[in-house]
Amino acid sequence: MNILQALIDATSTGAVYALAALGIGLVFGVMRLANFANGELITGAGYALILLWPVSPPLAIVASIVVAVVLAWCMDAAVFRWLRAQPPATLLIASFGLSILLQRVYDGVFGTNVRSAAVAPGLSASIHVGELRINLVSIVSIALAALLLIAVRLFLTRTRMGLQVQAASEDFRAARILGIRAGSVIALTFAISGVLAAAIAFVMTAQSGSVGPTFGVQVTLFALIGSTIGGLGKLGGSVAGGFLVGFAVSLFTSFLPAWINDFRIAFVYLLVAVVLVIAPNGIFASRTSKERT
């Protein structure tokens, strides 16, 4: 395989995982919640795209965002709001249970079989530059991820509400003492995670054209792993870690021999284990602690 093409594909995959890691990192920073149920936001948005795209593409895009944001708010109102004072491990277990519950709900509503439709069929085309073949969906995923990452960064650093979210992610108790409204910050954080989930769902449905009850599980799992190795609570670290995990998954898929390619996920976990042995608190958290000492 052309190395440059493999790098482009890996960058596209890494960009999607970086968006997922950003959504997880934002919620963790504010609530100390590693939200495993974030995958069900992606799945809900994916179903909206698959079901409504044949009717109206703009309606499908708007509906996917609304579904993901409202579902995120409902998760908080129904479960997480009542557990805010609990340790992070309790919140993680609750999010895992909520994820399983929503998967069963998707089973009951949509069936266990995947739903298929051509979402953004024009993105299945590719551009040929010599021997290099670049899929349009790869370009779109990279551009969309870059746009959203920049937008979130500008929001967090240039707006009053964004600065409150940043302050809450650094020290939530101190932020509340200083007068920051906890409810508004948490609601906004979940809303942003929903918008990011809808963007991920768009890219993934454009690539696969199908959605099932566990559609968002794998990308969420790897985004959680990426956030952990980057340093949970550090947004830049979460994004970088998510990108690196996605990049590694894609490169392993491209370059591992056929006889061992089925074990590529195991190699990713091995790589993660090595990183965590070297930096147990995450790459960026480790650097921060070294600087302080």
Automatic annotation (TrEMBL):
Domain of life (superkingdom) = Bacteria
Q: Which residues cross the membrane?
A: 6-28, 59-82, 89-106, 134-156, 177-203, 215-232, 239-260, 266-285
Give the membrane topology, semicolon-separated if more than one. Multi-pass membrane protein
**Stored InterPro entries:** ABC_transp_permease, BCAA_transport_permease
Enumerate the subcellular locations listed in this protein's record, separating them with semicolons. Answer: Cell membrane
Question: Where is this protein primarily located?
Answer: membrane
Q: Which UniProt keywords are listed?
A: Amino-acid transport, Cell membrane, Membrane, Transmembrane, Transmembrane helix, Transport
Q: Which family does it belong to?
A: Belongs to the binding-protein-dependent transport system permease family. LivHM subfamily.
Q: Indicate what this protein is called per its UniProt record.
A: Branched-chain amino acid ABC transporter permease
Organism this protein belongs to: Leucobacter chromiireducens subsp. solipictus
Origin organism lineage: Bacteria, Bacillati, Actinomycetota, Actinomycetes, Micrococcales
